[in-house]
Structures are given as C-alpha cells and as structure tokens.
Amino acid sequence: MRHWDKLGEAPIPGTSRHLELFRGKDDFFIRASGGTELMSTRKRGSEEALGTLICRALKQPTSARVLVGGLGMGFTLAAALATLGAQAEVTVAELVPGVIEWNRGPLGEAAGRPLDDSRTRVFEGDVAALLDPGNPTKFDAIALDVDNGPEGLTRSTNDWLYSDAGLAAIRQSLRPGGRVGFWSAGPDPAFGRRLQRTGASVEEIRVFAHGNKGARHTLWFAEWRKEKG
Ligand SMILES: C[S@@+](CC[C@H](N)C(=O)[O-])C[C@H]1O[C@@H](n2cnc3c(N)ncnc32)[C@H](O)[C@@H]1O
Predict the structure, then answer these.
(1) 122 with 92: CB under 8 angstroms?
(2) Ligand 1 pocket: which residues have CB below 6 Å?
(3) What is the pLDDT along the chain (229 residues), one digit of tens a residue?
(4) Which one, 131, 193, 200, 223, has the greatest CB density within 10 A?
C-alpha cells in the first residue's frame, strides 16, 4: 500500500471546507475535505495543454497579458510562461492562501517554481474579482481551471463563472481578439452549448490527463470575433 504524508491543510475562504496537501514517495496530491482529489503531480497533461494552447494562439505572445485562475500546482501557469515572451505578464488568481504558500514551499519544484518568474503576478482572492467590469485591466487570454468542470466544486459561488452572466463578464475582460480557455475533467454538452449561444467561436478538445493513453480531459477555447452592439 502506498504511503502518503499529510503536509498541510488550508481553509477555503467563504466555506467551512479546506484543501489538504499530501506527499508520496515522488509525487503530491491535493484533495478537498470530503475526499475529492482535485490535483495530482502525476496528472498534468491537460493542465499544461490549457496554458500552452491558450497562449500559442495569441497574436503577440511576446508582450501578452494573461490571466490564469487558479494556481493549483502551477502547471497551467508554468506552461503559459513557457509559451510567452519576455515582456509578457501573467496574473495568477488563487482563492486559497495556503495553496500559494505550498507553491512557494514544498510543491513549487513540481512545476519548476513558476511563482519565482519575474513575469508572474499573484492575486490572492477570487478570480471573479478580476473579471468585474470595474477592473480596467483587460487580458489577451484567460485560462480558467478552478473546479473539476463547469460547476462550482471548490465553492458554490464559482457557478457564476460558467453562467451567462459570468461568460459576459469574461468577454468584457478580454482585449479585442482575446480568448478564454476552460478546463474540465469531462465533457459537458450543456456548457458547450451555453458558450456557443454567446456568439463565440468555440473549439472543444479532449486531452490525455497523463502521457498519451488513458483518461482524457476536456478543454474549451472561446473567442468573440466582433464587439457586441
Ligand atoms: C484544479 S486546481 C487548478 C490546477 C492548475 N490548473 C494546475 O495547473 O495545477 C483549482 C485551483 O483553483 C483554486 N480556486 C478555486 N476557486 C477559485 C476562485 N474562485 N478564484 C481563484 N482560485 C480559485 C483552487 O484553490 C485550486 O488551487
């Protein structure tokens, strides 16, 4: 039987729940209290694909401004940084302060310490706050992986992100030509249709969780070609 050491517990703001970090012989995993595994260093393929593919399609990857939510184990952030140029800036929004601490500590090596990159800005809080119309900062790309799919798992208020109102807020947070990407553990036809109904051009792909066989995860990329109105 595998042996796991529990390294820490971090409260999830706005809930009575917490995340727990475990270390095995050569890997880590994070689970939500109640037992659902949220992330593992063994499965990073689709998280990396989200960061790479959203940035690779940018017209100006050298100087782009990108938002990643949330940090998790840092794979999406690291992949975005690896795809972008020296003048780019990536804001990573993370709701759980403990997750940021873990990435500055024992977990950091797993993704190559992307928080130490001078192009990284950390926003400790709800990614939704950065999507508020009152926020003058707009992004060329937004990569969202805050739950297990398009429904609030970390906390129920995340549901807003995947609603018509949330999608409208995401749209107005993008610079012209900008794109949003969503990660999900599995397909969700209703969410795909909701995205389409906003008028976005939508691409849905399945990506292996690890290597090139086994379980696959779903990514959606959406782009609104013309301004509304
Ligand atoms: C599945 S993990 C992200 C995995 C990440 N893509 C990676 O490469 O490791 C989800 C992360 O989002 C954070 N989170 C959940 N809701 C959030 C929110 N509303 N705003 C910011 N971060 C959030 C969680 O605490 C967790 O760290």
Answers:
(1) yes
(2) 38-39, 47, 69-76, 93-96, 99, 126-128, 145-146, 154, 158
(3) 678 999 999 999 999 999 999 999 889 999 988 777 889 999 999 999 999 999 999 988 889 999 999 999 999 999 999 999 999 999 999 999 999 999 999 999 999 999 999 999 999 999 999 999 999 999 999 999 999 888 877 778 899 999 999 999 999 999 999 999 999 999 999 999 999 999 999 999 999 998 888 899 999 999 998 755 4
(4) 131
